[in-house]
Amino acid sequence: HIIQLSSDRHFDESHFRFQKKSIGKAEVLTYKGFCSKCDNRIFESIEKVAPNFNEYKTQLLFSYRAFLSEYRIIQNGLGNYIEYVECRDLNPQIKARYAPMKRRAEIQLKCYEYYLKLFENDLKEMDNKSFLSFFWPRQHFKFHTLEIPKIDVAASAVFSYAEDLPMTRDEYNDIRQFKKTTAAYLKTFFINIIPREKNTIIILGYGKGATRIELMPVNKIDKLSIKETYKLISDILIKRINEWCISIPFFEKMKKN
After folding, report:
1. Measured distance CA(59)–CA(121) in Å, rounded
2. Which residue among 7, 44, 238, 240 has its CA within the 20 to 30 Å range from the CA of 159?
3. Is the pTM of this model over 0.85?
């Protein structure tokens, strides 16, 4: 087993705290939304054989799996918020508290639906054996594969910067007016931290058009030193990711320090 760390912001976004629980290693980089047959068919190339982490399809599949997990969380969260806001038994103050959360979840889901189509289009393109798709594949994402000395940390997650979303008041007030072009402005990022026997592989990805991750220009990511890579990954984990995992010995060492 390993330790899963998560941030808790659900009920008071001004309050931030870490929670921990023990989970099995197999749960870290998995998505439980498919049946076994479909899961094997989609992810076989990154689970059954040693994947090429520099290959676009490998990078895409790891990020697609992380994206699906977050997409499902948003769907479930929105369903809960809708129940709270529409419940006749809750007092108006409580319902008013959940209304902004419902609206943010609706907007986030719209953006993720846009990116879901991009993922599915790219995956279909990978399976297309035509001449054009082989020599000029349409790729909607950019990925960077980094290799660092082994660290006992694992993560598979999605994050974005809400301040990048140029949304009109009409779009906010009426989700039916939310435009696909608006969703495209919200650059969505993916991070996969994959510990191996002797090293750790990091796959960073984003929708094409993104220029920075945190304060780091994306065109400098492949040139980062090990120390700079640690700094970037630490910033992402602490500031942007709700859940990540570390080994039990590493957790005990952190507590002592």
Report:
1. 15
2. 44
3. no
